[in-house]
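STRUCTURE:
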């Protein structure tokens, strides 16, 4: 479900890249994204972000930052004492923390595709006017 004002990631037929734009209006046979009006029949599919993506990205950013700091400490330790294995262990620990934080970015959004000549089913829900 998309609301007016939300961001939508979509791809048109015969295009190679997805476009992310703000949904401004839904008309009878077209959708207004930003300043562009796109015919529904030209949209090949949309990518939908699940709540898992949002949570994973919020957790992943701090882990990547912490992992980077730990890797930096490992490099500093390797530089100050090249004969010790401690710096290498610290660096590898930081790399592991960074990798865990980066993992959510490897998962793509769910792709909802419409076959060529496929049909869209649009349900419009209107808010009740406030009295």
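SEQUENCE:
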């Amino acid at each position: 479900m998309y609301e007016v004002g939300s961001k939508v990631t979509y791809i048109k037929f015969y295009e190679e890249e997805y476009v992310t734009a703000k949904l401004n209006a839904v008309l009878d046979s077209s959708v207004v994204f930003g300043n562009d009006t796109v015919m529904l029949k030209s949209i090949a599919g949309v990518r939908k972000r699940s709540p898992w993506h949002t949570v994973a990205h919020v957790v992943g950013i701090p882990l990547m930052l912490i992992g980077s700091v730990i890797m930096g400490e490992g490099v500093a330790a390797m530089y100050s004492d090249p004969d010790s294995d401690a710096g290498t262990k610290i660096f590898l620990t930081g790399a592991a923390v960074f990798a865990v934080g980066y993992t959510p970015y490897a998962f793509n959004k769910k792709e909802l595709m419409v076959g060529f000549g496929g049909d869209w089913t649009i349900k419009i829900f209107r808010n009740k006017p406030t009295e």
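REMARK: The first strand starts at residue 7 and ends at 12.
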